Amino acid sequence: MDWNLLYTLINALVVPAWLLLLFAPRWRTTALVVHSGIYPLAYGALYTVCLLASMFFGQSAEGVGMGSIAAISALFDHPNGVIVGWTHYLVFDLFVGAWIGRDAPRRNIPHVIAAPCMIASFLFGPVGLLAYMFVRLLRGQGISLFETEEVSAEPRD
Predict the structure, then answer these.
(1) Residues 12-29: what's their mean pLDDT?
(2) Which of 22, 68, 75, 114 supports an S-S bond with 104, CB 3.0-4.6 Å?
C-alpha cells in the first residue's frame, strides 16, 4: 500500500466539501454532497477498514490497543495508524463544520461570521467549534445544541 498516496487522496477529497461549505453554502449541491452524510459515511467506512486492519490484520506496530497510552501510541507508529487517526480528524472536523454551516443560518448568524469558525474547524478541529460557540454567546444565542425550539420525544409526521 502506498500510504503517502492514500494520505494525499483523503486530504484532497475532503477539500471540495469545505469549499462548498465556505463558498456555496446555500447551493443545492452543497446540501446534496456535504449535508447528506456522504462524506461521513465514506470516510467512516475507510476509517473502519483501516482500524480493523490495524487491530486484527497486522497493519500496525506491535502492541496496538485502546487500553493504555502506550497501546494507543503504538497505533500511530505505523502508517496505517496515522491514516486511521487522520481520517478520524477529517470526518469529525467536517461534521462540525457542516453543522456550523446549518446552525448559523437558523440563528441568523451571517455567513461572513460563521465562515472563519468553519475554517478554524478545518484547520484546528475543536478550536473552530469553540470559536463558533463564542460567537453564539456574544450574539445572545447561548450554547444549547437543540436544533429546534421545542424538543419532543414523540415522532413527528
Answers:
(1) 96
(2) 114
Residue 135, C-alpha cell as written in the block? 460567537
Residue 12 corresponds to which amino acid? A
> pLDDT tens-digit profile of 92-146?
999 999 999 999 999 999 999 999 999 999 999 999 999 999 999 999 988 887 7
* Separation CA 64–CA 119 (nearest Å): 33
Query: Among 1, 7, 14, 36, which residue's Cα sits nearest to residue 125?
Result: 14
